[in-house]
Amino acid sequence: MTDANGGVGVPGATVRIANTVLATATGADGTYELRASVRPGTYQLAISSVGYANITQSLTLGTETQITADATLREDLVGLKEVVVTGNSVATSKQQLGNAISTVNARELTQGAAVQIDQALQGKVAGAQVSQNSGNPAGGISVRLRGTSTVVGSSDPLYIIDGVIVNNDSPELLDLGGYAQNRLVDLNPADIDRIEIIKGAAAAAIYGSRASNGVVQIFTKRGKEGKPSVTVSSNFIVSKIRKTLDVNTYPFRFTNTVASDLTQVPAERYDFQDQIFRTAVGTDNYVSVSGGSQATRYFFSGSYFKNQGIVDATDFDRKTGRLRLQQTLTNWASLSVGAIIPLVTAAKSRMAAS
């Protein structure tokens, strides 16, 4: 393994056979040895190292017992050459971009049991304040990228899904958080490929005054060329209240308010928190199918999410379907069609009568 600039060996580079656990690391002189018992065929050799761009090269294994594979790594200057597509649909390299962009990938979004996209961003973006305003399982989520800028209007950032601006306005006169539900709850976090967040005020130069509170660009998953790939996941969720208020359980009470009279009579005490809160359970089921040819690529997913609230008689149901088709018409034209279908999105929030 050698450096493209000086031709010297690259130590500590990881050499792995793609889609397997077979891997090794290069020595101080850049040489490596990977012992593996695999069937003859064509494999992809993935090579990565800190400070260098990742590369993948094909490796054909036959009946021979030993094969030599050399590679050259090029420096990756902190991804400055990475292409970023901004709101005006112009590709721009990061070194020429006037905004600081934070990226959250799909794996980070699906960690935990987040109900909606903004909730999944909690703790994953530096400088972003994400807080839930109520105990409602589908209640309002406040996202602040640049602090609170207004009392009358909304301080939430501008949400854009695959280039389409999401209307997330609240009918409330004063948006104080409350129970206003974020419409991003219709989108399953498992359908997200990545999220790019622009926190700088310069984002308003791209999207106008609506971007004064920052921009959250959401890119959904699309089909890739190859054999059909099926993804199935199922999660079981348990939620319970962490701490309740202290309740007076002393079985006696004073008969009057005179300080000198300490006469007490038996009294029955109640802790209604036991009737309000419960151990809530939920389930999150997801399935997706993707694949296609060089000309046609497809992605389809369906999900069912049901989650109880820790307050009795509160819950949230979501059934969604998503479809994305990409068709290459000519060498200069292509067609992409997508749809997100919220089959059922319902939240119930009421206090059960006792």
What descriptive keywords fit this protein?
354 residues, mainly beta, Immunoglobulin-like, Ferric Hydroxamate Uptake Protein, Chain A, domain 1, 3 domains, five-stranded mixed sheet, five-stranded antiparallel sheet, 4 helices, 22 strands, 5% helix, 40% strand, elongated
Structural overview:
With 354 residues, the protein is mostly beta strands. The protein has 3 domains: 72 residues, Carboxypeptidase-like, regulatory domain (Immunoglobulin-like); 138 residues, Ferric Hydroxamate Uptake Protein, Chain A, domain 1 (Beta Complex), CATH 2.170.130.10; 95 residues. It is built from 4 helices and 22 strands. The chain has a 5-stranded mixed beta sheet with strand order 9-14-15-12-13. The relative contact order is 0.11.
Radius of gyration: 28 Å
**Please, how many helices?**
4
Name the helix and strand elements from N-terminus to C-terminus, one letter apiece. EEEEEEEEEHHEEEEEHEEEEHEEEE
Count every beta strand, where a strand is a DSSP E run of 2 or more residues.
22
As for the CATH topology of the largest domain, it is Ferric Hydroxamate Uptake Protein, Chain A, domain 1
> What overall geometry do the principal axes of the alpha carbons give?
elongated
Structural class: mainly beta
**Main sheet strand line-up:** 9-14-15-12-13
Under CATH, the homologous superfamily of the largest domain reads TonB-dependent receptor, plug domain
Low-pLDDT ranges? 88-92, 173-178
Q: Give the CATH class of the largest domain.
A: Mainly Beta
Q: Distance between the terminal alpha carbons, to the nearest Å?
A: 72 Å
Largest sheet: 5 strands, mixed
CATH architecture of the largest domain: Beta Complex
Helical residues, percent: under 10%
**Mean pLDDT level:** 78
Strand content: 35-45%
**How many structural domains are formed by the residues?**
3
